[in-house]
Amino acid sequence: MKATIKPALTILGAALLLSGCISHHSTVYRDEGRIPVRFENDKAAHIFYEALSKYDPYRSKEESETEVSLPIIFSHERRVVTGANVKFNDAVKKCDTDQDGAITEDEAKIFSENVVK
Asked: How is the chain split into domains, by residue range?
């Protein structure tokens, strides 16, 4: 019985090595529509957009990567790329404190002060 197991394992091992690997790579783009917003005046818009350029809600890169692999046999890689609208919408939600769809100059100043910290 031992004599037949060893050749079977050898054949199985050789088949796995020679069969190549199964790999899957995917990129997911995560974005959404922009929230409609009004500004009290041009100064409020200027302050908001200036702060937005410095705003990083995730404190990291805008991509995340997940990889699972078993050497030679299987590899799975998934990359998620976050769009600019996700960052914009998050900033609007934080800036528009009364959630009325309009950003006042005071709200923009407060948002700007908190972003710079």
From this structure: 21-116
